[in-house]
Amino acid sequence: MSNLxxxxxxxxxxxxxxxxxxxxxxxxxxxxxxxxxxxxxKVLVPPGGAKRAPSKTSIDYPMIKxxxxxxxxxxxxxxxxxxxxxxxxxxxxxxxGWVAEVLRMTRLAPEIVESILEGAQPxxxxxxxxxxxxxxxxxxxxEQKALLGYVISPSKKYAx
Length: 160
Description:
By secondary structure, the protein is an alpha+beta fold. The chain is built from six helices and five strands, in the order βββββαααααα. The protein folds into two domains: 4-37, no CATH class; 61-148, no CATH class. The protein is 34% helix and 14% strand. β1 and β2 (10-14) form a beta hairpin. The longest helix has 18 residues, at 61-78. It starts with a strand and ends in a 12-residue tail after the last helix. Residues 1-6 have low confidence and may be disordered.
């Protein structure tokens, strides 16, 4: 019998000889099997027609996931589902300070958010830095880019 691969991400392999014996008047067939889970990974697929520049660093999936939470939570606050970040934290059973840190990520410059999604952020940029753990992230987009190590283009002037 050959290896059987199922869509359930399991690998089932026969690892010995099958045996038959009689137990309480019934014929029992014993087939020794090895069952292993196959490792899988998550892949982000951009919408059709979207162009993606080659990555200069690697994609930071935890940072992308946290950034997604930040914008989703901000949407819930904007739509009036929750009256404050504290109410959101209480309902989700999360620490209010952490929720506030994550929500501050919605104030990042669009170029910074885009570079994170593309995996082209500076190598030193991680969740602790982006959430303001090592120091307050300024509200001005140009100051953010300078602080976080982005090249500032003199022709582009952005403001929040």
